Structure formats: C-alpha cells, structure tokens
Amino acid sequence: MKNVLIVSGHPDLAQSIANVTILDEVKKQLPQAHIHKLDELYPNDLFNIQDEQQALLAADIIVWQFPFHWYALPAKMKKWLDDVFLHGFSHGSKAQLGGKKLILSFTTGAPAMLYHENAAMKHSIEALLVPFESLAALCNLELQEPIYTTGVSYLARENEEELKQQYTNAKNHAEKLVKLIKSLNA
C-alpha cells in the first residue's frame, strides 16, 4: 500500500459530524493511513513546518479533508497551506511534491441544488474548485476527481431523520474515498 497522508482541516472536529465520521470510517478501512488533524495538532496555528513537509514528502497520496468554507479551505487549513507550501518545497525550480496524487475530500453545508449558475451559489461546485486546479498545477500534483458530500448543515442536526442521513452520507463519502485511494494503489 502506498503511503497515504490525510490532512484534516476542520477548524473544530469536536463540533463535526460528517468530517469526523468520514475520518473514522477511513481509519477503520485504511489503518495504515496517516491522519493529521490540524485542529488537534496545532490548536494555536503554530505549525511544525518541518514535520508537515516531511509528512508530505513521505506521502504518495495526499488527501485534504475539510468543510468547504466560503468556497475555499477553512482558515486554519489555508494558514497551513501558506506556512507549509513554501517556494522551493512545493513549487519553484526545486519543488519536491511533483507526481504525488492530491484528493480533495470535502463537505458543504448547502445542498447540491444551490450549486448552479441559476441558484444561490451562482456556480457549480466544479467551477468553484478552479483555484485548486491551479494550485495542483503549480505544485505538479496530480489532482484527482474530488469527493464531496453536500447538505451537512448544522441546522439539519435538529431533525433526527436529517441527522441520521448525515451519518449515512458521511459513511458513503468515506466508502468512495477509500475506493479511490485503493484504486490509486493499483
């Protein structure tokens, strides 16, 4: 099995249902995967740059697991990216991440029907991911098809049926993620 690094960018996993369930399910099925929970490892956002870069260098497959905040990475994960993906490490003439596979695995609070040009978000999810395509190209990472689950709003937790559906959807998300990771190991 290739080395898998999962970087969890949820700002507070203790408040999550979907992201925690996804991580727990993936860990059950891929116990050898390394999971870096940024909120637990770095509560004050003081990242150990050398450790994070070494983990990335050791990985063949990198998964970013996060809630889609304001059409981008959550603030903690964005700071991690800013601090760790330095010129000469992730990009530039001495870049070291080239050829690694990158998987975006994320959740949204809004339902899928709102991600269309004629709906509230005014864009599809795929259109909103264009900056990630540019990031992957700059770092010579092989960006895979994203895996995402929509509609995991905090508001849905007040309804028992909707809450059960969030758990089911998160488990299905994890199954898709594990299947993709395994296919990249073939």
From TrEMBL:
Q: Which UniProt keywords apply?
A: Oxidoreductase
Q: Which Gene3D superfamilies match?
A: 3.40.50.360
So where does this one cross the membrane? none
Organism superkingdom? Bacteria
- SUPFAM superfamilies, A to Z: Flavoproteins
Please give the InterPro entries that the UniProt record associates with this protein. Answer: Flavodoxin_fold, Flavoprotein-like_sf, KefG/KefF
Q: One Pfam match, by short name?
A: Flavodoxin_2
Domain called Flavodoxin-like fold: residue spans = 2-170
GO terms assigned for molecular function: electron transfer activity; FMN binding; NAD(P)H dehydrogenase (quinone) activity
Q: What is this protein's name? A: Flavodoxin-like fold domain-containing protein
Species source reads Acinetobacter nectaris CIP 110549
